[in-house]
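Hi F.,

I've been meaning to write this up properly since the lab meeting, where we talked about keeping a consistent format for the predictions we share between groups. The idea is simple: the sequence comes first, exactly as it goes in, then the structure tokens exactly as they come out, then a line or two of notes. No screenshots and no reformatting. I'm using this chain as the first example so we have something concrete to point to.
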Amino acid sequence: MDGAVVVTVSGAVVALVRLVRWAGIPEARGPLLVLLLSVMGVALWGFAHGDFARSDIFSYFAGWIAVSTSAAGVYGVTDAAERTLRRNRQRRSEPIQRNAASTAPT
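Output, unedited:
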């Protein structure tokens, strides 16, 4: 994949990521969604191009990395992943709340 193709595929994937985020996909699923949509975009371009030769595999891989990086930046994957990890840590560190009936003396 040359630079022009990467920019074209990135533009389509970035637009799709923005639409999906606008639709209200949970932030915690964003990083995985960005990777999957990037794979889909590169694979669709490769299918339309009609060339899955062994010599082009690394080119597709490098293109996928470039497309994923562009889409991740637009989605805000770093911030979304950090907030998700912080929420998960807080949930694990919070004590288990017992209801009043279970702690009342009998």
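Notes:
The chain has one domain: 3-84.
The longest helix spans residues 3-23.

If this format works for you, I'll send the rest the same way.

G.
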